[in-house]
Amino acid sequence: MSCSLGPLWISLKVMLLSGVLLIIIGLPLAWLLSRPKWRGQGMLEIFVTLPLVFPPIAIGFFLLLLLGRDGWLNQMLPAGFQFELIFSFSALLIASVIAGLPLMIKPIQAAWQSETTYLVEASYGLGKSPWQTFWAITLPSIAPAVAAGLTLGVGRGMGEVGMSLMLGGNLIGQTDTLSLAIYNSVLDGDFNCAMQFTWILAVIAMSLFIVLRRLGRKNY
Q1: pLDDT digit string (tens) for 159-186?
Q2: How many C-alpha atoms does 209 have within 13 Å on its Cβ side?
Q3: For the chain, which has fewer Cβ within 10 Å, the N-terminal or C-terminal residue?
């Protein structure tokens, strides 16, 4: 029996979009967490780090209560502004981003905290704006950390099962990623498809790691 390639395309789409979202969300959060102590910083770090230490299935359950059709958020919104998010591709994407965000942020946060401050100050002394300094000094210095964080974050999101199962619903052809397809195949006793999906997942993970590792080493 041939195995459907649907989970592959769903996983690739999740990887691409979650990678973009991890950069958009992760960079500002890493910058905030790397700054000198400010009020609320500790609480933000707890929320960012929570997916690393709390069971994903429990986080998925909490998000289900929060974002469900009759969830806490919809109950606070006026009629006409409520939304249906659970058991959709968008929910699957949310699960992937939340799972990968801590691993995206931590390397960048560490790199920002150890950046060469004197180069940044010299850039300001030469009349460069903060934006020009970021592109010319800061970004090249943290580029390897961004590549490493993106590798870890996308890889973690790609392998997520607990939150994806809770939020995406494991709908065949709609929200079944490669990881969920392996789970489904094993439950159905189809070890052949499970092995094929596992090899595909391994090739994707290794390819992503090699590309981003070389990107991180590139001299910008």
Answers
A1: 888 888 888 888 888 888 998 999 889 9
A2: 10
A3: N
